[in-house]
Amino acid sequence: MIDVSPDPTDRCEPSVALSVVIPMFNEEEALPALVGRLRPVLDGTQETYEVVAVDDGSTDGTAVRLAGLRADWPQLRIVRLRRNSGHQAALTAGLHHARGSHAVSLDADLQDPPEKIPEMLALARTRQLDIVYGVRVNRSSDTGFKRRTAGLYYWLMRRLVGPHVCAQAGDFRLLSRHALDALKALPDQPQVYRLLMPWFGFPSGEVTYRREPRVAGRTKYPLRKMILLAIDSVIGFSVAPLRLAVWLGTLAFLVCLGMLAYTLAVYAAGDTTRGWTSLIIAVLFIGSVQLVCLGVLGEYIGRLYTAAQRRPTYYVAEDTAAASTPTAGVPWPGPRRDPGHRPDLLGG
């Protein structure tokens, strides 16, 4: 049993009211539009805030442009990772370093509107909620294929993981300091936050919005990464594949019994030359089931092996909020790599 209550010795008083965490990977083109919409919203809240921009090893001009923006925007804080560690790892870095009493995670592509942040903060305070999800009620800006696959993903997750998974809720959410401390207390940090956060059971609410087109640049989640995300979600939060392997093995056993009865019947009839096709089919079927079961077991064993290595999820090269301290650039000691972590899957 894991105790996810925050460690009293690890608590610190929030220095700002609101932190906005934005993982970034090659988002140079989107930065002007992001700042143009985000800064007026945050300035209008009359709250003390910080914007934690996590540069996830960008290879374009994102780092240079962030440095230029910070010169005119003192609330902008840059956390630069040493290499591309993946979107969820960058999000983890931002949330672990956030100093606000509340933190909102937001993507840089503006598909999730920053104008909803004040509404999320007001809802959390009014109803004393630890989590407020941004739920997409209109995805007309996405392609038909993307809408259908996303609907299938959430349908599957709600049936495998549980109905507590919020349908159509991505990584646009608000977390209280209590929820942030619970995240930091986890020994092995799962990487799929849209499934992890409902697992905690914190009081939560929803804010609905229309999903907008990407403001600039190209998506960082092509079909291949979406498929791998679905695989990681299923294996990381459910034992259903192992149970499926059991049922496949049971089915293969029943088929073998049927083939045995058929073989005995053919032998008793004195016709032993027939049955070659059915025999080959049975051999191929059983071999396929065995390979599927071995593949499922291999996925789980591989994640256990990765977890046993206990490599940090990310390394921080620079944090502008701590540039004058001797700990700047020291990797966060707490979170560890998730058994299903794949940098190529969760990259930006």
From TrEMBL:
Subcellular location: Membrane
Annotated protein name in UniProt: Glucosyl transferase
Key words of the record: Glycosyltransferase, Membrane, Transferase, Transmembrane, Transmembrane helix
InterPro entries in alphabetical order: Glyco_trans_2-like (IPR001173), Glycosyltransferase_2 (IPR050256), Nucleotide-diphossugar_trans (IPR029044)
Family: Belongs to the glycosyltransferase 2 family.
Membrane topology: Multi-pass membrane protein
Coiled coil feature spans: none
Composition skew (Basic and acidic residues), residue ranges: 335-348
Molecular function as annotated in GO: glycosyltransferase activity
The keyword Lipid metabolism appears for this protein: no
Bilayer-spanning residue ranges: 251-270, 276-301
Listed Gene3D superfamilies: Spore Coat Polysaccharide Biosynthesis Protein SpsA, Chain A
Domain (Glycosyltransferase 2-like): residue spans on this chain: 19-182
Residue span of region Disordered: 323-348
GO cellular component: plasma membrane
